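Pipeline run #58 for the internal structure catalog. This entry was flagged by the ingest filter as a single-chain record with no existing model, so it goes straight to prediction. Upstream metadata was stripped on purpose; only the residue string is passed forward. Reviewer on rotation: M.T. Logging verbosity set to normal.
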Amino acid sequence: MGEPNNKSGNDSAVNYLTMEEVKTHNGSKSTWLVIHDKVYDVTRFLEEHPGGEEVLFEQAGGDATESFEDVGHSTDAREMLTQYFIGELDLADRRKENSKDVLITTSSSHSSWWTNWLIPAFAAGVVGLMYRFYLAETRTSS
C-alpha cells in the first residue's frame, strides 16, 4: 500500500491511486497532494517550498486543488509539479464538483451582445456626459 499502483500491469500506463491511499501520506516522511486529479509526492519539496512546509502539511493527504489555485501559482510552479507526479486519482474518487469548472455559455447571441457591448457602451456614454458637464461647469465658474 504506500507505493503507486499500476492497475493495468503495463509500465507505460498511468498509476491510479485511491483517495484512501493518498490520505495515508500526510506527514513529513511522506507527503502526497492531489491537484486537479493528479497525485504528487512533494516530500522532497517540503523544505524548498517558498510558502513554508506548514502550508503543504495543511493539505497533505488530501485534495489541494482549491488552495493551489487560490494562491495563484506561477507557470514555473506549475511546471515544477511534473517532477513530483506519481499518478492520477482513481476515477471513482474524483470530485463530482469538478463539473462546476466547466464554462457555461448561452446559445442566445442576443444575451451575449447585451452584456458584452451595450452595457459598456452605455457606461461610456454616461461617463462622457458627466465629463462634458464637469468641463462646462469649470468654464462658467472661471
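catalog note: Residues 6-11 have pLDDT under 50 and may be disordered.
catalog note: The chain is about 40% helix and 10% strand.
status: ready for reviewer M.T.
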